[in-house]
Amino acid sequence: MTDPNAKKHRIILQRIARRAMLERGLLPEFSTQALAEVETMAGHVATAGGQTRDLRHLLWCSIDNDDSRDLDQLTVAEAMADGAAKIFVAIADVDALVKKDSAIDAHARQNTTSVYTEARIFPMLPERLSTDLTSLNYASERHAVVVEMEIASDGSLRRSEVYEALVRNRAKLCYNNLADWLDGKGPMPIGIGEVDGLAENLRLQDRVAQEMKTFRHDHGALTLETVELNLVFEADELKDMSAERGGRAHDIIENFMIAANGVTSRFLFAKKLPSLRRVVRTPKRWDRIVELAAEKRYKLPEKPDSKALEQFLTKERAADPMRFPDLSLSVIKLMGPGEYAVRTPGSTADSTTGHFGLAVRDYAHSTAPNRRFPDVITQRLLKSALGGQELPYAHGELESLAKHCTEKEDAAKKVERQVKKSAAAMLLEHRVGERFDAIVTGAAAKGTWVRLLHPPIEGRLSSGQDGLDVGNQLRVQLVRTDVDRGFIDFKRVE
């Protein structure tokens, strides 16, 4: 029999999401001034000429989630005679319409990111911008910042260039359908066959992405695979949580964007300009990562070593692919969160200012300006460099923004987790007393957290936490749920 309150599930979660935004200093709504600015906007007239190249003839396509409407980047490849390839990444020119210190910019600067909850999306920019005027939509001509990279046959970067260009999206593609086709498990996605040469171009993009992936991991980039949880609604009734993993289509975007973000960072440094770097410092809990490896009869060095950790992860993924996401989650938790930091001309990079998980020292978010404010900052710095204009941000302002972006990104993630936790509590509220297999995902003075193996839901261990640490597996019993607060409590059982 249908729960009479079931239709209220989405409404309840929307209320929880809005409240969580306000509690964490995020703006759930746009100001009247920002909305008024949008109403006066016309589409940016993109024209080639001068410093802007005309690349509309290339076979550009977007690859994103099935329901994505804010398209930040397009990609295309071009084969070279020696087995190398040119990779082009076009990034939406948000700065062309969103001017610094405008009301829209003030909202984006406060939230610093779009907040994605299944109940409701809180976009960083008004939807008329992020899903239309500044989105690289299908069949639309747009102005973009392009990162051009020459990739050798071994996956290494040989040469790169950054410039402005006019582009046109030939096909809007989705991760899942494209991955199935690339793996030979599904039909060609609609849209590929309608563009002459696009199928071959995507095969080339896939090949180059795999070569880049191999090169990165050979040099210490970590193989990590986590389970992405999606809420399953029927109308407004919450029915289930589904798990989604990445595939070959994700690999194309991931590897091209990592490379492009490195290029933009080094481009600014070469121009003797400051940059806003994305940093994941060496793991503070490396000792626990060493213990996890030892439990699986693998010896890691006493000091943090990304290459050694990658060798261990590769071995474990091959040995137990089904449980590998649980190990990945443990390693991610133990590495600690990322943050933003300013690198100024004349400073020297060291192991504390790079990105440990990606095994790179030069990394600046630049490829998602519709969704992340640090990318807008980087885009403005790039355009000032390309045009020989005055810097849009003083050093002190960049330092303040780096701290602010780190704090608000953390707040946004907490909102997203809050909604997932409340939704999970909805799904489990009728299963109190049942027992589940679980893995420890967090262990600190403030509490011990576990995630069920199925359904993949996380909650607090209210008793029996003595002697447990991240990565331990155990049996738990559900003892309490609280939908409004997103609380799920378990106790340890034999």
Uncertain stretches = none
- What proportion strand? 15-25%
**Mean pLDDT, rounded to whole units?**
89
Strand order across the largest sheet: 1-8-7-4-3
Query: What profile does the largest beta sheet have?
Result: 5 strands, mixed
Give, in order, the helices and strands: HHEEEEHEEHEEEHHEEHEHHHEHHEEEEE
The class by helix and strand makeup works out as alpha+beta
- The number of strands is 18
Cα-atom Rg, whole angstroms? 23 Å
Q: Percentage of helical residues?
A: 25-40%
What does the overall shape look like? globular
Q: Termini distance? A: 35 Å
How many helices? The count is 12
Describe this structure in words.
The chain has helices spanning 9-23, 32-39, 103-111, 127-133, 175-182, 198-218, 248-270, 286-295, 306-319, 324-335, 373-387, 395-428; strands spanning 52-54, 61-64, 73-79, 85-92, 115-116, 121-122, 141-151, 157-168, 171-174, 228-234, 237-244, 275-279, 339-343, 435-444, 447-452, 458-463, 473-482, 487-493. The protein is of the alpha+beta class and 494 residues long. Among the domains are: 6-271, no CATH class; 429-494, Nucleic acid-binding proteins (OB fold (Dihydrolipoamide Acetyltransferase, E2P), Beta Barrel). The strands form six sheets. The protein has a five-stranded mixed sheet with strand order 1-8-7-4-3. A five-stranded mixed beta barrel has the order 14-15-16-18-17. A hairpin with a 4-residue loop joins strand 17 and strand 18 (487-493). The longest helix has 34 residues, at 395-428. The mean pLDDT is 89.
